[in-house]
């Protein structure tokens, strides 16, 4: 029961953080989760985020910066594919 309570508290904290995000950032998080859970991708390219969410380049970049600053996603540079993002 103690482990379950800790999990619930942690889950509530994550939910609260996500609820405070702008809609565009929430959309990017949901898209990354979908790609990870359904399509089994561990990372997604910036172009895939734009194509998958329908956000403009500027809005997607702003949402990614917000998520990165809050520590919700990791950003790394792939020489072949340029930037990639993962939850």
Q: How are the secondary structure elements laid out?
A:
Elements (H helix, E strand, L loop, with lengths): L1 H18 L3 H15 L6 E2 H8 L3 H13 L4 E5 L3 E5 L1
Antiparallel strand pairs: 1-3, 2-3
Structural features, described:
By secondary structure, the protein is α+β, with helices and mostly antiparallel strands. The chain has a single domain, classed as Arc Repressor Mutant, subunit A. It is built from four helices and three strands, in the order ααβααββ. The chain has a three-stranded antiparallel beta sheet. A hairpin with a 3-residue loop joins strand 2 and strand 3. Helix 2 packs across helix 4. The radius of gyration is 14 Å and the shape is globular. The protein starts with a helix and ends with a strand.
The spatial strand order of the largest sheet comes to 1-3-2
Amount of helix: 55-70%
Report the sheet with the most strands, covering strand number, pairing sense and barrel closure.
3 strands, antiparallel
Proportion of residues in extended strands: 5-15%
- CATH fold topology: Arc Repressor Mutant, subunit A
Shape: globular
Radius of gyration of CA atoms, rounded to a whole number: 14 Å
SS content category:
alpha+beta
Low-pLDDT stretches are: none
Could you tell me the mean pLDDT? 82
Element-level helix/strand string: HHEHHEE
Name of the CATH homologous superfamily: Winged helix-like DNA-binding domain superfamily/Winged helix DNA-binding domain
Ends apart, CA distance between termini: 28 Å
| Count of helical stretches | 4
As for the number of domains, it is 1
Supply the CATH class.
Mainly Alpha
CATH architecture: Orthogonal Bundle
Task: Write down how many β-strands occur, each being a DSSP E stretch of 2 or more residues.
Answer: 3
């Amino acid at each position: 029961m103690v482990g379950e309570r800790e999990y619930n508290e942690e889950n509530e904290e994550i939910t609260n953080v996500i609820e405070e995000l702008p809609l565009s950032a929430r959309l990017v998080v949901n898209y990354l989760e979908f790609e990870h859970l359904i399509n089994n991708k561990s990372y997604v390219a910036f172009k895939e985020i734009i194509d998958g969410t329908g956000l403009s380049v500027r809005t997607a970049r702003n949402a990614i910066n917000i998520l990165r600053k809050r520590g919700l996603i990791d950003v790394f540079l792939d020489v072949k594919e340029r930037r990639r993002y993962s939850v």
